[in-house]
């Protein structure tokens, strides 16, 4: 029996058992080449056919629960409360909390120096909304140096390697791409010698689009309609692509995960990592406290006594307005996709529980029409994409640490097109520039020239977080500048 026939027999049996035999109906009459048919069979064989029905059933049940969910009448199991764990703020002036942060930085720096920390970048997004045809990480936000987001992150990791005593060796970076941008991302890094860091690339997974009845949808006679499985797909991808095994082989114990669209992120931030280590946390989250009740962002909370992220749309008006004893919003710990995990937590808690974490996204799915012998683009939603979110694992945590950080120092989102009033390359560049000017003032420099310029830059190779600038004390620096 040839390899093709053996695979066909195996896939046919699996599809029959899972009630998905229809996807093979067109194979005998298809004009596709044998190689194309073989590629199709391999793609079907990679689908978790035996689990797909359970994924969909759980997602549909969750969709129904959310549709009827009333936070004011929730049971104890479903009741949403403010996060009740300790949350330290980096903007604090309290001597006790400052001591906690100082100790955290020391512990985190030691962990970085010992090679126990890795950075994990979620970089599957394209720059489409920015008007850029390519991976979002390759986007230049307009800094004087022309640095892209990828370059900013890589140079910060390289600088951190020097500061932590790793002998100039950067913290290892694992980059989760998407099938759409994997090759372009890996090629961009290779063309720049990986920016002098140790980087590995792996694509997130995909799942087939389904009919409401749970049948896989064909885009052509020999092509499944598939979609990325959400940023929560990072967990199965770490296992499938061998990245988790690679981390363990290197002695990595802690992972700092973050999204590609934040120009001010501090990758492998030793203060955050050390804070989580000192708390004995298996999972951690950096948050920004909401500026107003109407800020539409998910928040870290507790559901049935377990940590979780609650979406803005799932909170009542009272919850959004509620104040705590400190006068701040009780539901104010805004989630910014900036997380800590122990490798042990990922391997032994998250991975065994992945099957219960999918959500329904009803979409217009192009599908093959046998009557017209072509692919049809529907005018309304006809199918379901299953996706998971990276924070879906929070309820599995036995001890979550939350660190409240300063917006102007840690969050410059790049999501909207140039010229937008918020979350655009322009607003990110201004935040980057304002931080650079603030660092220089704190170092004792006198700024001259155009003090309102948004083209001021202290490069990551010069300073990771404002350190190492004392040589500018008493000197004049003309704005704009690039150091």
Summary tags:
single chain, alpha/beta, 8-stranded mixed sheet, 13 helices
- In what order do the strands lie side by side in the largest sheet? 2-19-11-14-10-3-4-5
Share in helix? 25-40%
Radius of gyration: 24 Å
- Average pLDDT, rounded to a whole number, is 93
Number of alpha- plus pi-helical segments: 13
* Percent range for β-strand residues: 15-25%
Your description of this structure?
- The chain is an alpha/beta fold.
- 31% of the residues lie in helices and 20% in strands.
- The protein is built from 13 helices and 21 strands.
- The protein has helices at residues 3-18, 34-45, 49-67, 95-113, 149-163, 182-191, 234-240, 243-250, 270-278, 317-321, 343-350, 407-410, 425-442, and strands spanning 80-82, 87-89, 117-122, 173-177, 199-203, 206-208, 218-220, 223-224, 226-228, 254-259, 283-289, 299-303, 306-310, 333-342, 359-363, 367-369, 374-376, 383-387, 400-404, 446-449, 476-479.
- α1 packs parallel to α3 (49-67).
- It is globular.
List the helices and strands and how they pair.
Layout: H1 3-18, H2 34-45, H3 49-67, E1 80-82, E2 87-89, H4 95-113, E3 117-122, H5 149-163, E4 173-177, H6 182-191, E5 199-203, E6 206-208, E7 218-220, E8 223-224, E9 226-228, H7 234-240, H8 243-250, E10 254-259, H9 270-278, E11 283-289, E12 299-303, E13 306-310, H10 317-321, E14 333-342, H11 343-350, E15 359-363, E16 367-369, E17 374-376, E18 383-387, E19 400-404, H12 407-410, H13 425-442, E20 446-449, E21 476-479
Parallel strand pairs: 2-19, 3-4, 3-10, 4-5, 11-19, 20-21
Antiparallel strand pairs: 1-12, 6-9, 7-8, 10-14, 11-14, 12-13, 15-18, 16-17
Helix pairs in contact: 1-2, 1-3, 4-9
């Amino acid at each position: 029996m040839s390899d093709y026939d053996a695979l066909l027999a195996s896939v046919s049996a699996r599809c029959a058992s899972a009630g998905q035999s229809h996807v093979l109906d067109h194979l005998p009459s298809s004009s596709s080449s044998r190689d194309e048919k073989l590629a199709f069979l391999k793609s079907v064989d990679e689908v978790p056919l035996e689990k797909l029905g359970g994924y969909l059933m759980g997602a549909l049940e969750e969709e129904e629960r959310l549709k009827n969910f009333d936070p004011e009448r929730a049971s104890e199991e479903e009741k949403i409360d403010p996060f009740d764990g300790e949350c330290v703020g980096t903007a604090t002036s309290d001597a006790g909390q400052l001591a906690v942060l100082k100790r955290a930085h020391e512990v985190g720096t030691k962990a970085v120096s010992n090679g126990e920390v890795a950075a994990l970048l979620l970089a599957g997004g394209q720059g489409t909304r920015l008007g850029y045809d390519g991976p979002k990480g390759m986007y230049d936000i307009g800094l004087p140096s022309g640095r892209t987001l990828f370059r900013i992150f890589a140079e910060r990791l390289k600088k951190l390697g020097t500061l932590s005593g790793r002998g100039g060796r950067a913290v290892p970076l694992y980059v989760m791409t998407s099938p759409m941008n994997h090759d372009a991302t890996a090629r961009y890094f290779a063309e720049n010698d990986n920016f002098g860091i140790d980087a590995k690339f792996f694509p997130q997974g995909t799942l087939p689009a389904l009919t409401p009845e749970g049948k896989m949808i064909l885009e052509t006679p020999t092509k499944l309609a598939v979609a990325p499985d959400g940023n929560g797909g990072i967990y199965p991808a770490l296992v499938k692509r061998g990245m988790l095994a690679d981390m363990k082989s290197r002695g990595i114990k802690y992972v700092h995960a973050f999204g590609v669209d934040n120009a001010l992120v501090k990758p492998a931030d030793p203060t955050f990592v050390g804070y989580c280590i000192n708390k004995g946390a298996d999972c951690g989250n950096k948050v920004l406290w909401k500026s107003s009740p109407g800020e539409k962002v998910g928040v870290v909370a507790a559901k049935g006594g377990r940590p979780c992220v609650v979406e803005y749309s799932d909170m009542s008006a009272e919850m959004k307005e509620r104040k705590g004893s400190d006068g701040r919003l009780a539901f104010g710990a805004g989630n910014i996709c900036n997380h800590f995990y122990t490798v042990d937590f990922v391997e032994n808690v998250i991975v065994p529980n992945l099957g219960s974490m999918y959500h329904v996204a009803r979409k217009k799915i192009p599908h093959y029409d046998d009557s017209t012998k072509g692919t049809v683009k529907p005018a309304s939603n006809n199918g379901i994409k299953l996706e998971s979110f990276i924070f879906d694992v929070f309820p599995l945590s036995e001890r979550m640490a939350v660190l409240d950080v300063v917006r102007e120092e840690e969050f410059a989102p790049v999501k909207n097109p140039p010229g937008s009033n918020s979350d655009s390359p322009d607003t990110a560049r201004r935040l980057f520039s304002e931080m650079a000017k603030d660092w220089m003032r704190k170092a004792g420099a006198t700024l001259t020239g155009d003090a309102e310029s948004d083209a001021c830059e202290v490069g990551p190779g010069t300073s990771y977080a404002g350190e190492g600038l004392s040589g500018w004390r008493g000197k004049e620096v003309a704005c704009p500048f690039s150091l």
